[in-house]
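Fig. S4 source data, part A: sequence.
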Amino acid sequence: MRELLTIVLATSNHGKLAELRALLADLPVQLLSAAEALGEQPIIVEDGATFEANALIKAQAIARATRTLALADDSGLEVDALGGRPGVRSARFAHERATDAENNAALLRELENIEEAARSARFRCVLALVNPWRESDPRFAEGSCEGSIARAPRGSGGFGYDPLFLVSGQAGKAMAELSETEKNQVSHRGRAVQALRTILLELVNAQLDEAERIAG
């Protein structure tokens, strides 16, 4: 398939990069990591108060640095019993440089005395797509996945809080127990990418129209 669009992903998370590439594999789109496009992963201060704000901060920074379409994901876990925490601090819940295991352990400590009926939670993902030539007109796509928090990690797949997140409608399975195909069908990121596809198809069709105009 001939690639018609090149998009730089504003992430250093290999798990997110692999998921996004798999979810968009059938489109004529080349996805590059920021490190592949720039030779290194730039440091971006994610100081927004919402997933939308942080996704936009990252996408704008990479679009300016590469002068290429940039896509950023900001996502996290919202636990109802914790008032929506960890939210935008999901990757830094235990401390600023926390590992997945440390964040999972911190979450379990916080919920130790919370009964099953009150352990509801959701994963949320916001994608921001920024054109460096039209930075004031970003495009957003969003997805969420409902579930609850287990009392101990399960499964060996995924990353982040996947071992603790019991997915609604999946027979009590944790996100980390799902196959890649199953996860992509129900995950917050999978649903956000489905919404993004409409935007990307618009851009692909615009490229085709322009190529026909030039050729004709």
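Fig. S4 source data, part B ends here. The chain has one domain: 5-215.
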